[in-house]
Amino acid sequence: MLVLNRVYRSMLRASVVIASLWLAGCDTLILVGPANQHGQTAADTGLVAVDNLILKGDQLRRGGRLSEAAATLERALRLAPRSPDVYVALSRVKLDAGQYGAAKQFAQKALSLFPENTTWKADRAKSEAKWVISEVAKHR
């Protein structure tokens, strides 16, 4: 009975924390993914920092602070110059800023960097890059 009470209390605490974060408007959970082919996790390679910069850049973009978003994402690009996710995020910023040529270039660069066998995350980012290109075409 005592062990069961501890389990329930632990679950209740976790539920309260999750509910509090959700009510506070936190809708993003950062997880360290599985190891790559060299046995390194995202934390080992520094990609967690890149993911955090992408999230921050997207928040700034959604808040209308486009120049700050671009600067943040350019930092991410310096850390991970072959990350298609950074290019997709930059293409969204450029699209929102009305810089259609740059938006299209970043989206096309993102598409060129995706591997052939992709995950759901890569498929989503590919779709977003293609969407940016179609939005640019509407503005020309």
Structural account:
- The protein has 140 residues and is mainly alpha-helical.
- The chain contains seven helices and no strands.
- The protein has helices at residues 2-23, 42-45, 47-62, 66-79, 84-96, 100-113, 120-138.
- The chain is elongated.
Give the gist of this structure.
This protein is an all-alpha fold and 140 residues long. 73% of the residues lie in helices and 0% in strands.
Quick tags:
single chain; 140 residues; mainly alpha; Serine Threonine Protein Phosphatase 5, Tetratricopeptide repeat
CATH class designation of the largest domain: Mainly Alpha
For the record, the count of structural domains works out to 2
Reported for the largest beta sheet, the result is: none
Number of strands: 0
The helix count comes to 7
Q: What would CATH call the architecture of the largest domain? A: Alpha Horseshoe
Determine the mean pLDDT.
77
Residue share in helix = over 70%
Rounded radius of gyration (Å): 19 Å
CATH topology of the largest domain: Serine Threonine Protein Phosphatase 5, Tetratricopeptide repeat
> Pairing-aware structural class of the strands and helices?
mainly alpha
Q: Secondary structure elements and their pairing?
A:
Layout (H helix, E strand, L loop, with lengths): L1 H22 L18 H4 L1 H16 L3 H14 L4 H13 L3 H14 L6 H19 L2
Helix pairs in contact: 3-4, 3-5, 4-5, 5-6, 5-7, 6-7
